[in-house]
């Protein structure tokens, strides 16, 4: 089945991952690679846990991390064994059913947010992120998008910066000077 022939079956939305796409016993796209990554990750964790103090006794510092990592590795290996036995689900594609383009776009927005946060600062970066995300997800007017974005950002800023005094990257906006000017207005000494 080619990408152009693929039709999304909305009756299968919300299906449990235990029954991929509603088709029990089928391997979803990406499932095998993900399971292999889990096995490798668990093995690396076990190796690192062993490096804490080796395996000397149950009371050694590395015993609990090693036990936890061993359970993870055994579980991941069992899942890999089951995954290898499943036939591939032929009616699903990675791009349409598992990671649709919208998910990729939003993931790229998050990466851009992380990259731009330090140079631009919290306020402009968050505003750009909210504007783009809300516009794409809501498919509503720019008036709605701007209102919700600015309102959300204002609420987040007031709670975290003013109420809880969490420091955020200032970037290109002279936030300290603006806050001081507002304080001076309310103190009566502009």
TrEMBL record:
* Keyword flag Membrane: yes
Q: Where is the DUF1468 domain?
A: 33-169
Q: Where is this region: Disordered?
A: 1-26
Which keywords, in A-to-Z order, does the entry hold? Membrane, Transmembrane, Transmembrane helix
Question: Transmembrane among the record's keywords?
Answer: yes
Specify residue ranges for compositional bias: Basic and acidic residues. 1-15
Give the stretches traversing the membrane: 32-50, 62-81, 102-122, 142-164
One Pfam family for this entry, by name? Answer: TctB
User: Which named protein is this?
Assistant: Tripartite tricarboxylate transporter TctB family protein
Organism field: Pseudooceanicola albus
Native organism taxonomy: Bacteria, Pseudomonadati, Pseudomonadota, Alphaproteobacteria, Rhodobacterales
């Amino acid at each position: 089945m080619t990408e152009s022939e693929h039709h999304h079956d909305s009756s299968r939305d919300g299906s449990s991952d235990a029954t991929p796409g509603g088709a029990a016993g089928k391997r979803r796209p990406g499932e095998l690679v993900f399971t292999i990554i889990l096995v490798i990750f668990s093995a690396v964790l076990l190796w690192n846990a062993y490096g804490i103090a080796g395996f000397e006794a149950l009371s050694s510092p590395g015993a609990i991390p090693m036990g936890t990592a061993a359970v993870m590795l055994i579980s991941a290996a069992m899942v890999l064994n089951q995954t290898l036995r499943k036939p591939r689900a032929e009616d699903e594609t990675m791009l349409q059913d598992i990671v649709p383009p919208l998910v990729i776009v939003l993931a790229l927005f998050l990466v851009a947010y992380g990259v731009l946060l330090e140079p631009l600062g919290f306020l402009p970066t968050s505003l750009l992120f909210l504007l783009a995300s809300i516009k794409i997800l809501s498919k509503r007017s720019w008036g709605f998008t701007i209102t919700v974005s600015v309102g959300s950002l204002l609420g987040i800023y007031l709670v975290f910066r003013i109420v809880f005094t969490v420091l955020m990257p200032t970037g290109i906006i002279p936030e300290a000077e603006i806050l001081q000017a507002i304080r001076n207005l309310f103190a009566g000494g502009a």
